[in-house]
Amino acid sequence: MSEPVIEQLLATTGLDELYPVVASLRMTPGWHKKRPSLWKEPRTEFRPLHWRYDVGRAALDQAGRWIGTDLAERRNYLLFNPVGDNDYDTVRTLVVAFQMIKPGEYARAHRHTPNAMRLILDAGPGCYTVVDGIKLPMRTGDFLLTPGGCWHSHYNEGEASAYWIDVLDVPLVHLLEPMFFEDHPDRSQKVVAEPAGHPFYFPPQRTLPALAAAPGDDGVQRLTLETAQHIPTVDISLLKFAAGTGRDFGRNTASRVFAVVAGRGTARIGELTAQWARGDVIAVPSWSPYEIRAHEDAVLLEVCDEPVLRKLGFYREGARPEAPEHSHPSDEAFES
């Protein structure tokens, strides 16, 4: 005797009767999908976006009146892309945040699967992070790594609030689902070493001379930081633009974010034109054409997921689409 479900299938007299039966079995006819599953070129709901540091800093200062690190694990603002109900991801694989710690505060220790990195915007003596017992300074212009699985906590023993930009690959971990998180059993770590140099620590005294010595191309220089052995999911680079120079980067399948280390300029990403300044954050989703021009000497930090796409064979570059016939309202911003 046939199973009831097979009898139900065989009893259907047409497609209109068949579809609800197979749907109840959690099967979708490939010819009758609700939405396409393949398309001619990459597309994304993520939007090019620009966040200003002066706005983020003011918002952090205001929150600091009412919320401390005793109440919030981290006092930060996540820079999210308005995709559906998303209030976390900045681009598909990366999340960026502005964070602040006040004098006398510490952010308790924890560890997690995602990798993290930090660009320090404004911080003086006495601000530092501890990564697996290693004490690393957090001063203006510093860039630091916190590879996945490392205990990390932040301290401010100085006299002024400290501000920085966090970049993490949490959304990538969400997509792949290998997430682990753990609070430190003692809430804080014991400092076991305070080295003069460390592979997780990139001070401007080290990076900027190397960037200045990097080969230039039409006024733009690039220094790729040696971070792959510690954080293999992203490439991290510093880009230096001479005043009045810029570049059309075309588009590619990687997602990326930029943080402005110094200078001012204009970015055009897809339909977005943004005037950027020090401390600002710019999101460039996958397959978005983007162009960056500096109005004064400038340095930008770039974090992108290109290594993941290359490893999987998904990385591809494409030319920038032809400009529309109508003029862009901010074209004058690109005049040198």
Automatic annotation (TrEMBL):
CDD domains according to UniProt: cupin_GDO-like_N (cd02216)
Sorted UniProt keywords: Dioxygenase, Oxidoreductase
Keyword Nucleus annotated: no
SUPFAM superfamilies: RmlC-like cupins
Any one GO molecular-function label of the UniProt entry: gentisate 1,2-dioxygenase activity
Top-level class of the enzyme under EC nomenclature: oxidoreductase
EC number, as in UniProt: 1.13.11.4
Superkingdom of source: Bacteria
Domain Cupin type-2: 98-167
Pfam families, alphabetized: Cupin_2
Protein name: Gentisate 1,2-dioxygenase oxidoreductase protein
